[in-house]
Batch of 2 targets.
Target 1
Amino acid sequence: MKNPIFKFLTTDRRAIFLLVGLAVVIPLLAPLGLPVDITKPARDFYESIEALEPTRGPLLLSMDYDPGTVPELNPMSIALLRHCFDKNIRVVVMTLLPGGPGLAEQVTTQISQEFNNTYGEDYVYLGYKVGTAAVMLSMGEDIHGTFPLDYYGTPVGELPMMQEIKTLADIPLIVTISGTAIIESWIAYAGARYHKTIAAGATAVMVPQFYPYLQTDQLVGLLGGLKGAAEYEELVHHPDFATVGMDVQSIVHFLIVLLVIFGNIGYFIQRRSKSKV
Amino acid sequence: MRGCIIFLILFTFSCFLPHSSNPQTPPSPPTDIKVFDTPNDAGRSVTITWKKSLEDTTLIEYEILRFTDPDGEGISAGKVSLGTENFEDKEVEDGVDYFYLIRAIAPIGFSDSEQVGPVRSKGQLYDTSRTNVLIGVMIYSFLLLYFIYSARKGKELFVRKIAGLDAIDEAIGRATEMGKPILFVPGISVIEDVATLASLNILSRVARKTADYKSRIIIPNRDPIVMPVCREVVREAYLSQGRPDAYREDDIYYVTYSQFGYASAVSGIMVREKPATNLFLGMFYAESLILAETGASTGAIQIAGTDAVAQLPFFITACDYTLIGEELYAASAYLSKEPMSLGSLKGQDWAKIVIGAAILIGILLTTLNITFFTNFFTI
Amino acid sequence: MRRRVPLTITFIFGIFMTLQFFVPHRVSQVIYQEILKWFIIIFTFSLIFGSLVLMRLHSIRIRRRTSGWGYSLVTLTSLIGMIVIGFKTGIKEGSLFMNLFNHVQVPLEATMFSILAFFMASAAYRAFRARTVDATLLLGAAIVMMIGRVPLGTFLWSGFPDLTEWILEVPSMAAKRGIMIGVGLGVISTALKIILGIERSYIGGGE
């Protein structure tokens, strides 16, 4: 009695995988160029960077992600570094995941070269330190003690930019970009304990978890997934990888909606035929 | 000659003008200087506040000068941009008297505020800004301890049924009957995460059952500290059931710290070993659906439990039973039926009533534009 | 005695960590800093220990030729290979280590994450059925969210972004807050029971 297409999709999920695969590939080959609208959390994120003054302390960017979430989160880091360097805001970069140091270095070096920035004066890369919460708390007391050496082995105290940055108190804004609950750790330890202002970027699958912190101002801005990155690229007037990905996301979302509707039609047909029997 | 005379007159005249300011547009100095020991800190810090100069917008910056002797030479404690009205000096020693003045620096010349002090820095023994947290902790601890104490005295306590926990025994029994292993994933978080500890508490009960039923339990770990703790929990459980010989240390191992590396390893275990029961208990992130969907495709009974709100929909969709949020924390008490643990559940329920009442009062007062109550909860 | 020692240590450190939150004094902070350093050191050694356990496990599997030993061989070769290459060529940009990282590990892990999209599509197709009123509401909200979060949704109707934000900030937030309050209380309760030694399953039993 079952519709053959419905039966095919129900019995072999690879059929759905194939459709999703096509929905990803086709818009990449034939882009639609849809405009990106800006949501409030992304605008707040942008405004929090705009509010920084180059003469005050630097921004702390914690790239807390590893290779798995690179496609979704790297565009956020890239757009953020471009925004900061464009406004002459100094940046301290670090990571709390062991898979992150190489990625963070690549992105930081690439964008700093775009702006001809000087290491140690315009930006610093502290690298990775084990311990997540312990590292955050330790930085609240003493950054130089937590990271005695930077990623390249230079004593942090010898870097000109770090002379005046001793604890988290000397940093006006912390931005964490992650696909894990490290964002909540930053809120709990740097935010609640050291009263730091925090903005975040998260993978789309994790972002609903962080919405409550926006309402309570424990997060001053939030970028959610590739869409958030595309919004930020739009705000800094530098469309890049995330903006290209928006067409793909649009089509895949619509495909899933169609599948859900199709599944329900099949379900009701099945239910009616059962009730007739 | 005439020029020289005019210059001399002007020079002589200028000597009688105020020393520090530009004679044409001297900036007015900052006023209302206050200096005090920075409250609620570890010491070695002094805070200075002031009201900005009337010509604030035309200034370059403010410089904060520190003196150990009011008549001596001041040294620069720091500079802040215009518009700023406070500064925290962290270069001071505890127990030493300091004096401060604020210098408003204009493009030409500067003006100094009056000197204030003395002030001494010291560390505090109690952080007054956390009083609200202390009160909350005390009320909640009191509720918990009261109900734990009541339970110890033998008071009967009702606990609602949690289907996911009731199914654990059945799921272990099924795996035993089928001669297949049980997969236990203690989440991918660290040991200090209480969700991980709650998971380990459940593991202890599960391991006792597997020891009794002589089933095999596989525990791949993402955190290297969680791994030895898992081993210890399972070893102790087997020991307590009198089955130390059945304990297989090699089935509890570390895989990788990489989130998706771990997800792919666990998926591989599910596909190769075909466990009859998968238990996903603890903290999970984006890998939750990958694990649960792979497990569902192998036909295993799946019981999940997490307090990661964003992952709950995935587990509910792909697993047979899901412990939602606090059910994960209630599991140990529910499974053990120990009166003291059950008492703590009752305490939690009462705390919820207190919080609910506070929320209602907060809504009411805020609607009436009375904010002191809601402000009390600011941390 | 075997139980009393860890329980006593747990009690002392648990109480200290709770009290130090309220004590900003330097003495408290110095001890606290020291504990944090211990934690970082323990974690580093446990990482080495974990890797050794992994090596031992896969060596045994290869030696015994248990089923799937080929996977163990790949794991062991990759693990040792990356360590040797890392020490030999360094980990700077352009090194063999970084090339392997960029061109092997990054695509592998990114692929694993991208599988999520496929699984979500499949799970949504299977699970989203309008069986009851509740399920229909859930289904409706999900469809609005999926359409409203992408540019094509805005292109179709400009009200979608506001509607999705409302769903996230009002009904979804209310439910999440309820769960989060329960979780928070559960966390404190579990922590208190562990500190006071009431909950001792994690050290092997309650009796």
Target 2
Amino acid sequence: MSTTSAAPKHARPSGSGVEPILSVEDLQMYFPVKSRGVIRRTIGHVQAVDGVSFEVPKGGSLGLVGESGCGKSTTGRLITRLYKPTGGSIGFEGEDIAGFSPRQLMPLRREIQMIFQDPATSLNPRHTVGQIIGAPLVIHKITGKDGVMPRVKELLEIVGLNPEHVNRYPHEFSGGQRQRIGIARALTLQPKLLVADEPVSALDVSIQAQVINLLQDLQREFDIAFLFIAHDLAIVRHFCPEIAVMYLGKIVEVADRESLYTRPLHPYTQALLSAVPDVRQAAVGGRRERIRLQGDVPSPINPPSGCRFRTRCPIAKDVCAKVEPPLMQVGPRHKVACHFAGELGHHPAVPVTGIDVEGAATGGTVVESAGPGFEDTWLDLSTGQRTGA
Amino acid sequence: MSLSESQLEVSPTPDEPKADDQPQSLEGLSPTKLAVRRFRKDRLSMIAFYVVAFVLVAAILAPIFTKIGIIDPISLNQDDKLIDPTLGGLPRGAAGGITWAHPLGIEPGTGRDVLSRLWYGVTFSLSISLAAAIVAIVVGTVLGIIAGFSGGLIDATVGRLIDLTLSFPQTLMLLALSSIFVAAIQQRTGLSTNPANAVYEIGVLGLFGWPAVARLIRGQVLSIREREFIEAAKLLGASPRRLYFKEILPNVWAPLLVSFTLITPQYVSAEAALSYLGVGIKPPTPTLGNILTDGVNYALTDFTYFLFPAIVIAVIVVSLNLFGDGVRDALDPKADR
């Protein structure tokens, strides 16, 4: 059996049968780096997002995790089309919105909204709460002038704030309350997809749970799909049934919650998870081995050849510098991009990506899945055989 | 969430620090209201404010008082009891002819009432200064916001325009081009000499004053446009107009107000200086500038006639400056002085 190169189109239903609301394929965002001086030549590109594919099911949520600067916030801003992607497609309800003009995007603004990271800067300090939450209605001319206030008060109640506070200013609220205002603004137009860009990382830990619970209630009540961007793995685990791990502009592992947290296969995911404090282990006095990654994240202007993680990878071999590992499916809802994918401490000695240690193709079984969804068959890493559902 | 919980959650904010002694009430205190509170606590600023308010009220009342005959800045008074023709028209009596009828004395030569002329002069001088300040603020704000928000080529173009304007020898140009431009204005609009002079002065002061404002606003906008609420507004589909005027402009009110209150006194003294150089409104119409210019001729023979306009200019300039400083401190309590 030779390498199966799957090229699914974004309208294809995913393996689970739930139709995706958002289907991102091979998304790229290169920011030009200009030289200084009068004639500003482009001297390079920051490859902030480089070939990312994933999908978000209707009413579901996908978590996007990774360390600072890995491109997860850029991805969020591409989905909301605050940036225009350099390449790739963003399928939203079957339409590719990647190349939409501002005029075409206008109706879309109602469907895709965003919750920002820092509630201190995401609310205009000179506007009252009523003006902030009512702004979407005014901009889209949805209700008359009389219709704004009742809706604003309704939204304040939905997010758990006192509707009488409409005439207050953001600085009069605490961080958690301000984030609720931001959430209310995002909800005003009744969106189908919310991009939550680290919605709780700027909040006090005691408030984080409140806001997360609010988001979950809203998701259930209004059937909103979430792209949940975070670096806190515990919160993502609580919120998202499916999680994608990004490193330096690429997705290195995507899996459902159980697979990712109990059986991570990529050394980067394993390192991330080893950094999460574990209450149960702490209770019995045990300590999990902490994987310490050496060095800094390489520059996205000039990323390493082959596998981007190899410069910090504890199990990297020579072949990792030569061949970039494809994203391949290794479980019913589990994809990983690593030549030596395997459970912690059981990484195979030879690449599982259909090449030998020199980088030459061996013709071994590989189920590549570069598209947004999951394949129906996958490679069972323990047997090396193609398996189906 | 109930009120009691919201009271529990109130925390100091990094963005808009509020005074410690604020009672919690349901009515929100806008950042402006907080600034007014801070301003009222500053005694020096409040004194300056009262002086500025007094000057403004006086300036507004001057034309009305003239009309009903309480003050008279124009009519001559060639009474030999008041001025001494043998001394070239110097006022009789002590300190420039100060009497109950003429509390600040009378003008040498013409015998006009100095108080009336100064009073009306404040009106003209302040009108010109305020109008020029408004021109500078409006032009500077519009160009500053556009440059700061657009960036790139537009920003660079405005930047060069600022450099060009600042490097221009403006005093020289004000003098050299005065007669040509005033004549052109008269021809185009049919205005008489003094209104045309005023238009010229306002235009030139304003058009040389905007670069400072534009630079200030551009800097502010550069930091504001990176804040997430601008992204949030874009995400909602806000038009550039809404972004400029609804999202950004309210956030630059503070520096605008400060530069307005600090530019105006500059223009009051500029008007006086230009009058001395022969630009601007010409006598017999009184402005602080041309009264002072006239007074300089009598600095040795009729000292009070020189002293009073100088005092009035100094009081207006100092109180406006102190007022501006107070406004700045109230709006931005973190700023270093």
